[in-house]
Structures are given as structure tokens and as C-alpha cells.
Amino acid sequence: MSGEILSQNEIDALLSAISTGEMDADDLKKEELEKRVKVYDFKRALRFSKDQIRSLTRIHENFARLLTTYFSAQLRTYVQISVASADQIPYEEFIRSIPKMTILNVFEVPPLDGRIILEVNPNIAYSMMDRVLGGRGISVNKVDSLTEIETRIMSNLFEKAFDNLQEAWGTIVEIEPVMTEFEVNPQFLQLVSPNDTVVVISLNTQIGETSGMINVCIPHVVLEPIIPKLSAHYWMENAQKEKIPEEIMILEKRIRSADLPIVSELGSTDITIQDFLLLDVGDVIDLNKAIEEPLTIKVGGIPKYRGQPGKVGKKHAIQILDILKGGDEDGK
């Protein structure tokens, strides 16, 4: 049965059509059976669930924010990067969808197997390079004639940019991105077999007045070991995970062994900058406390106790007389 809910008017109209002979119940049953058969294209195998694609989208939304910050600092101009889409397609389809000459940065992401592509539209790449060289961010598409200097500038820029993926993926797996190849012709880059499924995350990119796309292509073989971690169930389990007793004991032990500065204040006063500049050896400063008043003892900069000064053997000491309630900055 279909999961569609009919209104009362639609139900009445349907019953009326059957009763008058305008519609045959047997035809409806045949139509329902036909709807159960779905066309499946084995060349476009869906290896990831919608839930896993949503998780990858969230991860790369964080990656887009990190890239925005990175490129804004490097290029010193307006930069806006956001996720446009996340799709699973055959690798061959990805290669056909990008320009014939473009900027392809290939990375390994150990400990995961396989390689990832960071494809940057030439308009964006040249606008970035122009800004790095001190220009206004003008884009001139001449990918087929990149000089060695231009290639080095671009590869260095995108290699450091891809380091942000390590932080974006940190909640799923610890990776160490390493750039292994820089290519401009997609036909020379055989990452996986043509029919293998890849996830392509497309990022809308605005650099000053220039706009274009940055695509992150991730083969299924790279994500296969961490696919279970991409489900919402895994995220919920991590959020609700309770600390085990051993972790609590270790945390308490570390807190107890932490160093805290303890300061005993004799008093304080206010003087003008002029008086401060005229201070000399032998001058006396009047404090706001009488000699018989207890001193305030601060722990970590917060008033905690009152005490009186004294000596233990040959060392100066202070005896605690009272505990301050609240422990706020005023000691009240």
C-alpha cells in the first residue's frame, strides 16, 4: 500500500468513481504492483545512505568555515565558502563534470587508504594567485600554460588549505593529509576505476568579485573503514557516552595534583602616576589596612581565607583564621 494519506474529499471521490464504473479496483491493484518495481542503475550504485551523506555534509560545512577563515587571512580580501551539494556519483561522471583543464590537487589521508582530490575551478585558482602576488584578484584562465613558479605558488596555497580537513574530520578519524600530486588535466588522473562510487562535496566559493566552485572528491574506498561512524546513531552514542570510573579517577588525580598560586595581601592603596614616578628607596606607602586586621588570602586570584602573618622556624608563614563564604572577587 502507498504511504500517501488521502483527504476525506479524495476518498469520497474515489469511492464514487468505483461505484459508477469510471475506475476499476483491479486496475488500481495492478497499478500499485507496478509502482513497487523500481529502476536501479548498477553504474550509479548508491553506496552511502542519506544519513551518511548528511553527516559528510555537516563535516564539510565545518571544513568550508575553516577554509573561509584560512583564505581570508592569506588573501586579505572578502572570501565566502559554503557547501552547495553532496552527491554520490561514478568517478567517470565526476571527471566529465569538471573543466577539461582545471586545478587538481591530489592528497593521501593516512591512516585511510586511497586518495582524495581537491579540484579548484581555474577562475578561483587564478584569482587567489593574483591576490598572493599582490594583485587585485583578477582571474585569467590559462591553465594549460602554468609556469613552474605559478605551479609552486598554487600547490603551496592549496596544500596548506587542505590541512584544515584534519580539524574538520577530527570528530570521526585522525588523518594526516599529504599532497602527492598536482595535475591540470583530469584525463591524466586515474584515481579509481570509472564506475567506482565517489562522494563529491561541491563548495560555492566567492573571492572578491570572482566566484566559482571547489570540489572535494572522496572515493568510497577511502570512507569504507569509517562508514559506521557517519551514522546519526554513532553521533548520538558519542554524545551520551558516560565517563567510565577509571577516567573519573584519573581526572580527579590530575586535578588534585594541579598547582594553585596562593597570595596573601598585606593591603592596597591608590596613588597618582606622578607619585609613582617619584618613588625612591626608603619611601613609605600607606596601605588601607591596619596592622591588627587579618589579611586576605587569595587562591588562584580569588579571595578564599582570612589569616594572620607569623613565622614557622625561620620561614615566614600565615595562619588561616576564617574561610570566606562564596569565594567571589569581593570575598563575600
From TrEMBL:
Start and end residues of each Flagellar motor switch protein FliN-like C-terminal domain: 254-324
Pfam family of the protein (one): FliM
Record GO cellular component, one term: plasma membrane
GO MF term set: cytoskeletal motor activity
Membrane topology (UniProt): Peripheral membrane protein
Keywords for this protein: Bacterial flagellum, Cell membrane, Cell projection, Chemotaxis, Cilium, Flagellar rotation, Flagellum, Membrane
Chief location: other
Record-level GO BP terms: bacterial-type flagellum-dependent swarming motility; positive chemotaxis
Presence of the UniProt keyword RNA-binding in the record: no
Transmembrane segments: none
Superkingdom, taxonomy of origin: Bacteria
Cellular compartments annotated: Bacterial flagellum basal body; Cell membrane
PANTHER family listed in its UniProt record: FLAGELLAR MOTOR SWITCH PROTEIN FLIM, YOP PROTEINS TRANSLOCATION PROTEIN Q
Family: Belongs to the FliM family.
The name this protein goes by in its record: Flagellar motor switch protein FliM
